[in-house]
């Protein structure tokens, strides 16, 4: 009887121990495709961690911090397990777990740029007490942030008076990194074009040039009256990153 009581007591102790919730840390980062980490300078990335079965939100917040070390991320030869994050922007969550849990991790980035915002998602098992730390979980965010700057929406021009209008856009990597002719993110590897539609009908497509950092321009002769829509597209021939924005203006005689 005594041995039976001891056995039951031990089983009870092990059972209580196994059911005790353990704090489990997970670090999530977002890295722009062919560039650096998305952090505070771009408003961060919104990270949402959910129970994959019930869809319950377990943790939510923004990545905070810098874009990381350029040499480590973009220039160094990397071997397996070579760290590249070096304190770059991250979101850290602590989740209390009693047993392994399958979760969905979602990222919306860059959160402050609606015209370029991309959703990325993955799933993984979280195991009680087994932290996903160090480099953490890294989600890739493809694309460019393209901001049409000029003309302003619904701005009016005259063929006779204005003759032409300068189309202008600001284009950066998703982490905010600079694009320039001959730079690390080289505009000569990109195709940036303006497709012009007048009253809904395609008119012409013209390439844009990069006279200064992040700025792409082209002079458009004014030859047709009507409502003009200009779709600015950016395409990188090697990384296959893409980005789009629109301009709208009016042209009269």
Distance between the termini: 105 Å
The total domain count is 2
| Major sheet size, sense and barrel closure | 5 strands, mixed
Outline, from the CA principal axes? elongated
CATH topology of the largest domain: Immunoglobulin-like
**What percent of residues adopt helix (DSSP H or I)?**
10-25%
Low-confidence stretches: 4-17
Mean pLDDT: 93
Number of helices in the DSSP assignment: 3
Give the strand order of the largest sheet, numbering strands 1, 2, ... along the chain.
9-16-15-11-12
Number of strands: 16
List the helices and strands in order. HEEEHEEEEEEHEEEEEEE
CATH architecture assignment of the largest domain: Sandwich
Structural class: mainly beta
Over the alpha carbons, how many angstroms does the gyration radius reach? Answer: 26 Å
Comma- or semicolon-separated keywords:
253 residues; mainly beta; Immunoglobulin-like; 2 domains; five-stranded mixed β-sheet; four-stranded antiparallel β-sheet; 16 strands; 11% helix
Would you mind describing this structure in some detail?
By secondary structure, this protein is mainly β. The protein has 2 domains: 121 residues, Immunoglobulin-like (Sandwich), CATH 2.60.40; 109 residues, Immunoglobulin-like. The protein has 3 helices and 16 strands. The strands form 4 sheets. Strands 9-16-15-11-12 form a 5-stranded mixed β-sheet. The protein has a 4-stranded antiparallel β-sheet with strand order 3-2-5-6, with no helix packed on it. The protein has a 4-stranded antiparallel β-sheet with strand order 8-10-14-13, with no helix packed on it. Strand 15 and strand 16 form a beta hairpin. The termini are far apart.
């Amino acid at each position: 009887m005594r041995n039976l009581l001891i056995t039951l007591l031990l089983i009870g102790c092990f059972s209580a121990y196994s059911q005790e919730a353990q704090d489990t840390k997970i670090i999530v980062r977002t890295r722009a495709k062919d560039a650096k980490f998305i952090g505070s300078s771009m408003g961060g990335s919104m990270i949402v961690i959910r129970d994959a079965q019930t869809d319950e939100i377990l943790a939510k917040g923004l990545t905070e911090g810098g874009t990381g070390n350029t040499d480590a991320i973009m220039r160094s030869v990397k071997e397996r397990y070579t760290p590249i994050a070096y304190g770059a922007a991250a979101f850290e969550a602590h989740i209390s777990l009693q047993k392994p849990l399958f979760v969905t991790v979602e990222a919306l980035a860059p959160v402050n740029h609606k015209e370029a915002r991309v959703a990325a998602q993955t799933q993984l098992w979280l195991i009680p007490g087994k932290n996903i730390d160090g480099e953490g979980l890294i989600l890739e965010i493809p694309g460019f942030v393209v901001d049409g700057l000029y003309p302003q929406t619904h701005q009016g021009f005259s063929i006779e008076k204005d003759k032409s209008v300068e189309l202008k856009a600001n284009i950066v990597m998703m982490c905010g990194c600079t694009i320039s002719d001959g730079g690390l993110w080289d505009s000569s590897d990109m195709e940036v074009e303006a497709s012009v539609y007048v009253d809904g009908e395609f008119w012409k497509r013209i390439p844009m040039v990069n006279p200064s950092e992040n700025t792409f321009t082209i002079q458009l002769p004014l030859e047709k009256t009507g409502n003009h829509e200009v779709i600015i597209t950016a395409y990188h021939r090697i990384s296959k990153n893409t980005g789009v924005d629109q301009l709208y203006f009016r042209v009269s005689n």
